[in-house]
Amino acid sequence: MFTHMKDLQFEAKPDGPDAAFARRLQEILGGKWGEMTVANQYLYQGWNCRLPGKYKDLLLDVGTEEMGHVEMIATMITRLLENAPLSLQEAAEDNPMVAAVYGGSNPAHLIHGGGGALPVDSAGVPWNGNFITASGNLMADFQLNVTAEAQGRLQVARLFNMTGDPGVKQMLRFLLARDTMHQNMWMAAIEQLKEDGLEEMPVPDAFPDSGDLTEQFGYTYLDFSPDGDAAEGRWASGPSPDGKGRFRYEGSPRPHAPEPVLPPGDPRLYGTNPGMAGRAADRARSELT
């Protein structure tokens, strides 16, 4: 059950309108790594979680907070669109420079949204439910959540440098601070899973033993580049992070199976089969004779 407080978690009020920046701000609302994605991702992970208690509460608490961020950004976009010109002529009436800014705005904000935010990214592409992942494995999901927060924070930081509006910058500072918390929080949750004995690396931990294949391939870095620079990486020598093996390096990896030769396909599928070449040659010879 959800309840809605009319107050925002943090102020979302620009010092002045800016329709062009409203378009850019759409990325952290309806983009792949935007707030609509993380809000729904955490909520679905929580709803799908089979462990009652702290992990389920963590996911639902953060998903609910992120939904509040959706409201903040939507409010900021709507305020940035205040008094946006409806035509190029209107934009250029007072200042020709305004026309250039008008050219960077998103017409859909006015045509579809009536001067409000939309569930789209900065290019106007609609938000997609395929952006979210809720696998049912907490270790796998928490690792993806770290990535989601890092990508979202990166985009917020870039947007911060694209505006001079003090009010917008203050809201972005708040989002950056919360993303900092969330990145650290998911990394702490990963360690908590290990401490509780629920999951280990790699994911999934409970997987049939692959025996000799794990020994041969499970910790071997295969270098397909000619210069061999990757051999200097932490991933090519020394103990592995899961504590179950040691990395080794293999330059110029060799194949472990011969070239595949596929049998002819079902002729009813009208594919180009190996036998076709022989039949074509036979026809050519018969025509010559």
From TrEMBL:
Cofactor: record remark: Binds 2 manganese ions per subunit.
One GO MF term: metal ion binding
Cross-referenced InterPro entries: Ferritin-like, Ferritin-like_SF, Mn_catalase, Mn_catalase_dom
Binding site for Mn(2+) 2: 66
Binding site for Ca(2+): 57, 61, 225
Residue spans of biased composition, Basic and acidic residues class: 243-257, 280-289
Keyword set includes NADP: no
Annotated stretches, region: Disordered: 230-289
Keyword Metal-binding applies: yes
Record-listed Mn(2+) 1 binding positions: 35, 69, 149, 182
Record keywords, A-Z: Calcium, Manganese, Metal-binding
Record family assignment: Belongs to the manganese catalase family.
Protein name: Manganese catalase family protein
Biological source species: Micromonospora globbae
UniProt lineage: Bacteria, Bacillati, Actinomycetota, Actinomycetes, Micromonosporales
